[in-house]
Specification:
single chain, Rossmann fold, six-stranded parallel β-sheet, binds NADP nicotinamide-adenine-dinucleotide phosphate
Length: 296
């Protein structure tokens, strides 16, 4: 039986009037659904995206659908740390109840960021970990929450101290999976002891969006469309992260084989305490380098 999304939302969300949601990747395949679902719950949305025009066009669409929606746009390029800092400067004194780290890249040509890591690692992990860390003071004021969108591909990564960002491994799924593993484990350690800001790790399973839409492979895309849940359904896993409280060693994702079915809380795939600690220490030392660079 097809899932009735509106019924699911009515059952699994509460009114967010007066609450502010900041979301990266807001105009992406999943981001658009999350934004719509949270506007329906009366949240105020601040979209963080690199493309201002896309945000303006999406805002116009949303206002036609929801004339009373409160929507703002702030430009951010997660591959440029100065751009992340500029966004933080605009946000740090504002009310933030939820920060959704949803932006991501997969299978893009690799370049090297200013800190020497590849762009997938920089965008998916470093910049969004850094963004969450910088916005902790704002989130503390509301006892807020970070919702981080990770992936089952995080199973493809294992800390390799000789190739931290997997640049030398070259396989797109591994480069991507490794960046998500860093995001997952570093954030989970960062928020482990905190009770003033909460964390929900979520993953959407697999769904056809611009990220997974293999260009020039129409058949693959068609098969994906038939086999996997629609983006509107996959996005519910992210929405669930806003409302459900989960433990340090859990995440939210589709119930069946981690791909199909309703959002469900389950145990995070195992990682050793040693790997967790090393990834967290690396994340912290990268942030220190960024902060030091910024102070010059
Ligand atoms: N689709 C899946 O099957 C799947 C599976 C597991 C996890 N996920 C995760 O779900 C999240 C959403 O992905 P999606 O499927 O919705 O993909 P998508 O449609 O490609 O959306 C990705 C979003 O990230 C933004 N982004 C990329 N690079 C950026 C940068 N340098 N600075 C700022 N924003 C940037 C994109 O903006 P532009 O439009 O400007 O590129 C886009 O809005 C990602 O974290 C992804 O890893 C997706």
């Amino acid at each position: 039986m097809a899932l009735d999304i509106n019924q699911w939302l009515a059952k699994n969300t509460v009114d967010l009037r007066g609450r502010v949601v900041v979301i990266t990747g807001a105009t992406g395949g999943l981001g658009r659904h999350v934004v719509r679902d949270l506007i329906q719950a009366n949240a105020k949305i601040i979209m963080l995206e690199r493309n201002m025009q896309m945000m303006q066009d999406f805002t116009q669409q949303l206002l036609q659908e929801f004339p009373n929606a409160e929507i703002e746009s702030i430009q951010i390029d997660l591959n440029q740390i100065q751009s992340v800092d500029a966004a933080v400067a605009q946000l740090i004194t504002r009310r933030i109840d939820y920060l959704i780290l949803n932006a991501g890249v997969y299978n893009v040509p690799l370049t090297t960021s200013q800190f020497g890591y590849n762009n997938v690692f920089q965008i998916n992990f470093i910049s969004q970990y850094y963004l969450a860390k910088q916005l902790i003071p704002a989130l503390q004021r509301t006892k807020g929450k970070v919702v981080a969108v990770t992936s089952i591909a995080h199973d493809y990564g294992r800390l390799n101290e000789n190739d931290i960002d997997y640049t030398h491994c070259k396989k797109a799924s591994k480069v991507y999976g490794n960046s998500k593993r860093f995001l997952t484990l570093a954030l989970s350690e960062l928020f482990k002891e905190r009770d003033d800001v909460r964390l929900a790790l979520v993953h959407p399973g697999i769904t056809l969006t611009p990220m997974t839409n293999a260009k020039n492979r129409i058949l693959t895309s068609l098969v994906m469309k038939m086999l996997f849940p629609k983006p509107a359904v996959a996005a519910l896993n992210i929405v669930r992260g806003v409302f459900a409280e989960i433990n340090y060693d859990e995440w939210i994702g589709p119930k069946t084989a981690r791909i199909w079915g309703l959002p469900t809380v389950s145990k995070l795939p195992a990682a050793t305490a040693e790997e967790r600690a090393k990834i967290f220490n690396l994340a912290e030392s990268i942030c220190k380098v960024i902060e030091k660079t910024n102070s010059f």
